[in-house]
DNA sequence: AAACGAACCGAAAAGGCTTTCAGAGACGCT
DNA sequence: AGCGTCTCTGAAAGCCTTTTCGGTTCGTTT
């Protein structure tokens, strides 16, 4: 039943086309299509049919001009490459897409100038709000208070506490990770993690330490900061085993580190998880499921962060402003690399 | 020098605000700011200063309504999760961002219904064009010929040859991969790759076979199709070594497979690259640089694909329509896992 | 029969911008 | 002085939709 001649490449139908075809005025056509009550049912039907025949889609641009709200938001990422931005972005896109909001994507490539440029461009397009997604949890410069639209920061909080930021709770993440290891009966727990220049690394270590203290324990040695790489995981494990051969769990700052740790443990003849339990961080599927055994990991619920940011922005557009840093809980995803001591 | 009272949260300045402040009409103000020639230099200067004082940014929505072109495009991905979409998206965003085009991001989550919904929404916003990004290189259903704006398909080509699609040249990729191994003096080359349901897997195998044939050689055994996982890489390697212990190179269908291959090779006492050279596919940094040794891999130049798609769309909006499937060359990134036989 | 609501419809304005066209000065020429 | 020519400027139309408000038609009430 293909239509012989669709509307095709000519100008899309406008409301006045519909009105003409239905034999009413544009005003009536508008009311009919928008469910306004001052239209006779029969007339409304005629208009709807006309609209369908012309496959009329109301021009959101015109609508936006009139309403003062465009139904668009800007999503400003600092680097798409980083794998943390993507899930957040997905969550936000998802939360908005369900409504009638469209998302402009802008990647600043970590450059402040480019970021400014994008902000200007987005404001020129009269977005109703902005979400700023960072690639690390360290605070970042605020876009300022003088913007004409609300802004929500996701993952990387703003350094201005008047702004609203949504971040994962990395201290809590450290706690629940250790809690899981304790629940598995482990007591000699080491922590190998990434670059100490990252707040995430320091906070996770802090949380881990606090959970251990609550149980009357301490970490085996100090937290071993280094790099977010497999290489560091391997190197640190070698040292760890030399110093503390009796360790029975290693909490790692990332899944990459964890893979390095597991490799060296196996090479040195330690069984995972029987002798040593290993936990990662980030719950990055490629790494967790490919490792032997599959890796227990902490998931930061980044999609959730994205959705929460979208939701917060939505309510802020509605007028309800919040501020401060709100942190969302993380969760432990249990796989084969951790198990109770038998 | 902070301004005491910025434009802040009040309505952004409009052109008529600027005109009033400069003491001219909106028409003149418009011409002055847009570089039209029919304005005295002195008047223009006055207008520009007024615009600056009010930090005036022209309303792109109004401009779009008038011009009939909005300076926006829709970027329709089928799944953001997949790692192939991201670089393409970055490339496209980059190519457009440099100009004055803004990108609407929509993720269909692999659902045709949702895709349709997004297309409708985007057309309602009067995007000037559409880029459809797929997650595998197998052809996908066309959006149809009746759309009012040009469409370019990236990575996953349309099944309608009247559409324009930009894809990586996977056959060529298989060729250059084998060429590199041949250049390293390898002659007993095996191919372990992923799911044969993927066109990419079949095409790469085809290209590899062709390059070998050109050299008067054949693969060691047949291409070993399986899954895109480390696990399959390990399993296939075990079988391969049993059947052909003299193999001197393994071309893998993905970096994940390659990591599995390398692991088993090492465990069985084969040195990489001295005894066996190993190549991956996709050039996925996390995997290539973390493996021991770092992995030589074929990069599909996906950012390039994204940029090319953006560029093609741009010219199509300008009126120059192309059609068919255009494939872009891949490149070999050489790291430690391949080296000349000494 | 006159008046009154209710129900329905359409003209017009608004939103911010660009462009066209006509008008206003300024200037030089005959 | 009168005329044509430039150079600037501004009024107004147009883009597409929504909303307000005034007008018309009916049926109902006194």
From TrEMBL, chains A, B:
Residue span(s) of domain HTH lacI-type: 13-67
Alphabetical list of PROSITE patterns matching this protein: HTH_LACI_1, HTH_LACI_2
Entry keyword set: DNA-binding, Transcription, Transcription regulation
A molecular function GO annotation: DNA binding
SUPFAM superfamilies per record: lambda repressor-like DNA-binding domains, Periplasmic binding protein-like I
Name of the protein described by the UniProt record: LacI family DNA-binding transcriptional regulator
Organism whose genome encodes this protein: Streptomyces bluensis
């Amino acid at each position: 039943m293909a239509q012989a001649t669709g509307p095709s490449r000519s100008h899309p139908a406008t409301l006045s086309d519909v009105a003409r075809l239905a034999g009413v005025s544009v005003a009536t056509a508008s009311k009919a299509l928008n469910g306004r009550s001052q239209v006779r049912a029969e007339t409304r039907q005629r208009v709807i049919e006309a609209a369908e025949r012309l496959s009329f889609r109301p021009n959101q641009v015109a609508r936006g001009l009139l309403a003062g709200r465009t139904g668009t938001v800007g999503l400003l990422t600092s680097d798409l490459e980083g794998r943390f931005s993507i899930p957040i972005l997905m969550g936000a896109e998802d939360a908005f897409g369900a409504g009638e909001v469209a998302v402009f994507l802008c990647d600043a490539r970590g450059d402040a100038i480019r970021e400014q440029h994008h902000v200007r461009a987005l404001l020129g397009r009269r977005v109703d709000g902005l979400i700023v997604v960072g690639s690390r949890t360290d605070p970042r410069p605020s876009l300022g208070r003088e913007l004409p639209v609300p802004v929500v920061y996701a993952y990387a909080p703003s350094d201005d506490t008047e702004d609203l930021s949504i971040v994962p709770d990395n201290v809590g993440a450290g706690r629940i990770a250790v809690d899981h290891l304790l629940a598995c009966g482990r007591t000699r727990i080491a922590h190998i993690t990434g670059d100490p220049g990252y707040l995430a690394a320091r906070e996770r270590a802090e949380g881990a330490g606090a959970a251990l203290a609550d149980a009357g324990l301490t970490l085996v040695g100090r937290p071993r900061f280094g790099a977010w790489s497999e290489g560091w995981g391997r190197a640190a494990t070698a040292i760890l085993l030399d110093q503390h051969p009796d360790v029975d769990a290693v909490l790692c700052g990332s899944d990459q580190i964890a893979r390095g740790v597991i490799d060296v443990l196996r090479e040195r003849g330690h069984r995972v998880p029987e002798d040593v339990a290993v936990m990662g961080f980030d719950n990055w599927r490629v790494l967790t499921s490919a490792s032997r055994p599959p890796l227990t990991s902490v998931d930061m619920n980044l999609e959730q962060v994205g959705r929460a940011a979208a939701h917060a922005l939505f309510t802020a557009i509605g007028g309800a402003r919040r501020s401060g840093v709100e942190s969302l809980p993380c969760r432990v995803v249990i796989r084969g690399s951790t198990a109770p001591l038998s």
